[in-house]
Amino acid sequence: MEQIIRGAVERGASDIHIRGGDVVRARIGGKLLPLTKQKLSPEQARAFVLTVIGSPGMREKVDLIQDYDCSWGVHGVGRFRVNVMRQRGSFVVVLRVIPYEIPTLEKLGLPEVVSKIALAERGLILVTGVTGSGKSSTMAAMIQHLNHHEHRHIVTLEDPIEFLHHDNLCAVSQREVGADTESFQRGLRAALRQDPDVIQIGEMRDAETIDIALKAAETGHLVISTVHTKDATNTVARLISAFPPEEQETVRYRLADALHAVISQRLLPRKGVRGRALAAEVMLMTSTIRDCVIDAEKTAEIRDHIAAGRDVYGTQTFDQHLAELVQTGAVEFGVARAAATNPGDFELKARLSEAGAGSSMDGLTSGSSF
């Protein structure tokens, strides 16, 4: 099994699926592909579960497990975020690959403004996107950037711990929910008494966590977290809607004061080569966008203000970054169009750009120009 996992990692797998009654599969380039011809037996799947579970107590109760999360490492191969579940009575293990080396912001393909955002003194920074869009990697890269440029105390709350950070200019305290603290909420409350400058929360899961995170940002801390939302506008709406209707107007004002930036991202297959390219939308809290957060009728205008702030603030919408990826030949036009926030508008602007440049749509589709 270790050889199979090693081979999957070497092929660039992001996730590995191990289940009784099926072959081993891996998600490579966004597609779930078979790695073996022979199916695993339910007994082999159970034996692997016993290998990845680190807690002796949980190993003794392995046959009672229905859902379980932990982390696991293989020397010389990498670390993995592990989810164990049951389906039709047998075990399934899904491994999310976590590289030993923490990627830089530049290597991830994030715009330059993100390196400035990561060094903010205070406020709430949110990294958003669907599952598997690289949110954890971006947060780790931001923490790493801070660790090499600032003298601060960073407290992380994770479930489970993924990337391992070593103290450099910063002191980094990594706490795992379940092992080091009872819950995100309890760990976050405790973090406020641990002299933190920066608090990283694995995920904003509910109104209570959002409320404590806002309080931390309001009291002068830098808070970095993730939300499962598709873009900045949707993120603002989701955070507000997490609270009861009678509290939402107050939350709008709190969010307008505390929110510093939203970085939303999507991963797209690269053109002609293995791997995926990152497309990012970046919002900075300007006075204009603050008004849009406070006024519900203006919230839908956020995307337009992000686009307008590209030259002045370095912000960008998904569609602006997608156009850039097509221009540089990183992704196919069809792939970019499918991923665009508004595919129809994206194609229309592309056609107008082509017409202005005197080029044909054939050149556009090939990604040679935009």
Description:
Strands 9-8-10-11-7-12-13 form a seven-stranded mixed beta sheet, sandwiched between helices. A six-stranded antiparallel beta sheet has the order 3-2-1-6-5-4, covered by helices on one side. Mean pLDDT is 92; it is low at 359-370. Helix 10 packs antiparallel against helix 11 (287-294). By secondary structure, it is an alpha/beta fold. It has helices spanning 2-10, 42-52, 56-60, 105-108, 113-118, 135-149, 184-191, 207-218, 232-241, 248-258, 287-294, 302-308, 310-313, 318-327, 333-339, 343-357, 361-365, and strands at residues 15-19, 25-28, 31-34, 67-74, 78-87, 90-98, 123-128, 153-158, 171-176, 198-201, 222-227, 259-269, 276-284. It starts with a helix and ends in a 5-residue tail after the last helix.
Which characteristics define this entry?
370 residues, alpha/beta, seven-stranded mixed β-sheet, six-stranded antiparallel β-sheet, 24% strand
Secondary structure layout:
Blueprint: H1 2-10, E1 15-19, E2 25-28, E3 31-34, H2 42-52, H3 56-60, E4 67-74, E5 78-87, E6 90-98, H4 105-108, H5 113-118, E7 123-128, H6 135-149, E8 153-158, E9 171-176, H7 184-191, E10 198-201, H8 207-218, E11 222-227, H9 232-241, H10 248-258, E12 259-269, E13 276-284, H11 287-294, H12 302-308, H13 310-313, H14 318-327, H15 333-339, H16 343-357, H17 361-365
Helix pairs in contact: 7-8, 8-10, 10-11, 14-15
